[in-house]
Amino acid sequence: MNSQRTNRLPSWLSRKMGQPSKLHEMKNILRSRNLHTVCESARCPNIGECFSKPTATFMILGDVCTRGCGFCSVEKTAAPLVVDANEPRSIAITAKELGLKHVVITSVTRDDLYDGGATQFALTIQAIRDTIPSISIEVLTPDFKGDKDSLNIVLNTRPDIFNHNIETVPSLYKKVRPQADYRQSLMVLEMAKNMSHAAVTKSGLMVGLGETRDEVQSVLKDLVAAGCDAVTIGQYLRPSTKNLKVKEYIPLDVFKEYESFGRKIGLKYVYSGPFVRSSYNAEMLTAS
To answer: pTM of the prediction?
Structure first.
């Protein structure tokens, strides 16, 4: 693959930070209610732009994960964390205060909970709908260890978009997602489509970790076979020195190739580019 050397950041990976005042205002609101966003915890490069709109992807169930994926900067621990009963209502109030029309709810992985945190997803969705009836809601869930009952708890609240990220190609799972299973993630997406035909099913993957173009195309085919409607493809950027190194910076034309290929094989929506992230401009999906 024609790639860039990883010791020099390509020109197309420069990013404006947005309005500092809006960034601080959003952070102050979140901290005042003890809320977390994946934008902050995952050190997303789009945080300045998204917080300036303002938009945010709320991360429920705390900011400490029970898994340790190689790409993720969210803190890992095996110790159980207390579930905040006030969190759903706090998120709903915050979403209304910010005037949000579309909200994304995600979480750390909670293997310590009997339902993987599915009930908290459901309570949060219901609280938001009770507070803002016209809002559209996307969930970005963990794999729930493939448990159908947990998945059903979330889907029974009828989110507009169900998202579960495949993250990378199968050959890199042991390094990138050592506690996850590629086939299980595909199964979760397939179950979601079968259990809730009305919801848009969505997934995302990172590139630049050492995968080949053929491997990426194979993943896209698998996602189509699983009933996936939408896919996001973005450049992996190392969030800290504790995380996996970037193997290559993918050229813009390759991102365009992936987008074209995905649409050709039947995906309804494909968003592919260096700064594309699972929740970036997520509201455009419901508007399209």
So the answer is: 0.85
